[in-house]
Amino acid sequence: MKYIEISNLFKSFGDVTAIENLNLTIEKGEIFGLLGPNGAGKSTTINILCSLLEKDRGSIKICNKELRKNDASTRGKLGIVPQDLAIFEDMTALENVMFFGSLYGLKGQDLKNKALEALNFVGLEATKKLSKTFSGGMKRRLNIACGIVHNPELLILDEPTVGIDPQSRNHIMKSIKTLNKNGCTVIYTTHYMEEVEAICNNIAIIDKGKVIASGTKESLKGFITDKNKFEVMVNDITEINEKELGGIRGIDSVEFKDNRILVSIDREINSLNEFILYLTDKSIKILDIQSKVLTLEDVFLNLTGRKLRD
Ligand SMILES: Nc1ncnc2c1ncn2[C@@H]1O[C@H](COP(=O)(O)OP(=O)(O)OP(=O)(O)O)[C@@H](O)[C@H]1O
Questions:
Q1: I need a surface site. Which of 96, 117, 183, 210 has the fewest CB within 10 A?
Q2: Is the ipTM of this complex over 0.90?
Q3: pTM
Q4: Superkingdom of this entry's organism (predicted)?
Q5: Ligand 1: which of 10, 12, 13, 15 to mutate, judged by most atoms within 8 Å of the beta carbon?
């Protein structure tokens, strides 16, 4: 069932077009991934959806109903976890969550119980410590607790794992999956394609304010089934000229990491042989070759010629 339908959304800031005729459909009950590099237009889309920003043109329908400014009934169904931490540093975790819960009309013991539940859910204790003493990961988790205290029908998370430790990241990923299993529809924006691959059903890749590809991760990878990717470990990388290597017909992209070369090769032209000859001509020893699984990062690179985190 269609839950959100965004059609021909347009938003500019002066001369900068942030969103250009963007179209998205989000199904009820899914974890939808909005993937794109910095400046792609993810936050602008999310902020319009949450009525924090006004659109210039286009339509946003939630459950088939056009989203109107200050629509309290729709707002009550949404939970928002903004990119910038929206917590009060001089308040405890419980005080923070209770404050946000009260904005959604929760009161008294019900408010306290739901706030404690939300804290428990993200793995935080209701201690007397002020939030300013928390680690980055704890603050991010608290930010999420504030967004889910009122049991939203739709949770929108804008890059919730920026700059945190792997343990908190894993905790956040698990919590989102559990929330979704309990019936919450989730929109997850990020430029970390591993996260999108791990938790999202449907994905839209956006760039320069437009959707450049959308679908399941499998269908997106179908865009580049004409490529093979290899990781080649060599004894010495200093003699290799990236331009020369990239210039070999059929070699789509080359990337260096320590003494490893990541190479994407057009399946039809299959120039692995030329690639190996190039290395052996320079007396470079190949220590290992592994075939790599294609990722959404590869899809993005293939569609735009750029990396997600350039
Ligand atoms: N308030 C604003 N004033 C002027 N330009 C803005 C404003 N907000 C966003 N932009 C511009 O709109 C474009 C899209 O920005 P947006 O923040 O939506 O991207 P994003 O995908 O969320 O990127 P990031 O991951 O860096 O947050 C960028 O070019 C940005 O500089």
A1: 183
A2: yes
A3: 0.81
A4: Bacteria
A5: 13
